[in-house]
Write a structure and sequence with these properties.
362 residues, mainly alpha, three-stranded parallel sheet, two-stranded parallel ribbon, 5 strands, 55% helix
Length: 362
């Protein structure tokens, strides 16, 4: 069986160091060992309101970041999700096989319910009860969900499954916080195979790679680095220049103690752990080796070394992104070629899927 990989990121906000270390850097390595499909998942972006023109530009910017980080379009297929109709078409088919209870167990599903309940002025007592009943599905408390709550906010994990299964991907590079989505995809693939007595979809395996499977905020080592964080000092954007990178690392939250000798000691100090993890991922070294070289150092010294490392690794990406975005026609042509290649594979799969389930396919 072919070793095929599918992965993608949303075109919302600036891509940052966490996106690079947790995904892009690993995607580049995978190009030499697998058949890779990388997409800009714009259909997922519209689960929340988007400005149409800004979304189109963000899609180009995200594609530029992929290329600048090292995605080689001679080796990998790079495309935009919405340009390949199989994603949405298969998403509907899989939604008819996905029990609502499976979605109700998703962390993001429960978080979305909690946010909607909060906005709907549900009492604090009711919110606590809902949080305690983590296995309740949405129909148990539909009366406190506003009538304008959008289905896409709850159902998008099925679209994520379709993203993967439309390509019959065998492996998916994921961060620690995305494993649950892949587990759902595996469940849905199995449900399809059982429903139609056909071993059609492979059960995709997770690939968790590198030291930085989850990069945390520079301002709070217990929170994931995020595009949506109000503080720009919480993250290093791939568009930041050398001065911005240096300032953000200098201001990054740390504690007063020097670097410890062991990773076990480091794990008790979230901000210290985060900065060492970033250094390890940028230098392709294990955390233990980083500590061995820097044990006993004060963070003022370590941050200088980290700044030099970050600038050396990230500035070439920033500069290449700028060159690419200066000529959007080149990016568009790359995406069109990728779209054609992705459509060729997924339309073949969709014809097979329709035959299996009895849809009109003459």
């Amino acid at each position: 069986m072919v070793h095929r990989i599918l992965s993608g990121m949303q075109p919302t906000g600036n891509l940052h160091l966490g996106n690079y270390l947790g995904a892009l850097k690993n995607w580049v390595k995978l190009q030499d060992t697998a058949e890779c499909y990388y997409c800009v998942v714009d259909l997922h972006a519209i689960t929340v309101p988007q400005d149409p023109q800004k979304l189109k530009q963000a899609t180009r910017e995200t594609a530029a970041a992929y290329i600048a980080a090292g995605i080689d379009t001679r080796k990998s297929t790079l495309f935009v999700q919405s340009a390949v109709s199989a994603h949405a078409e298969l998403g509907w088919i899989l939604s008819t096989l996905t029990p609502l209870g499976w979605l109700g167990r998703m962390t993001q599903f429960k978080d979305t319910k909690a946010r909607i309940k909060y906005k709907a002025n549900v009492s604090e007592e009711e919110q606590k009860k809902a949080a305690a009943s983590i296995r309740k599905i949405v129909v148990d408390d539909v009366s406190i969900i506003p009538s304008d709550a959008k289905l896409g906010l709850f159902a998008y994990p099925v679209l994520m499954a379709a993203d993967i299964l439309a390509y019959k991907a065998t492996h998916v590079p994921v961060g620690e916080d995305q494993k649950q989505h892949l587990e759902l995809t595996r469940d849905i693939a199995g449900a399809f195979n059982r429903a139609y007595n056909a071993e059609y979809f492979p059960i995709p395996e997770p690939q968790i790679l590198g030291e930085a499977t989850r990069v945390m905020s520079l301002r709070d080592g217990t929170k994931k680095m995020s595009k949506s964080d109000e503080s720009d000092y919480s993250r290093i954007n791939l568009t930041d220049d050398a001065d911005a990178i240096a300032l953000k690392i200098k201001k990054a939250k740390t504690d007063a103690d020097p670097l410890p000798e062991t990773v076990a000691e480091l794990e008790k100090r979230p901000e210290a752990y985060n900065l060492v993890t970033i250094y390890a991922a940028l230098s392709d070294s294990p955390r233990g080796a980083v500590l061995e070289a820097h044990t006993g150092e004060q963070f003022s010294t370590f941050k200088k070394d980290l700044t030099e490392m970050a600038v050396a690794k990230l500035l070439p990406i920033t500069e290449k992104m700028r060159r690419l975005l200066a000529d959007p026609v080149e990016i568009d042509q790359i995406l069109i070629r990728g779209e054609e290649h992705a459509n060729a594979l997924t339309q073949k799969h969709m014809r097979e899927i329709k035959d299996i389930i009895g849809l009109w396919n003459v």
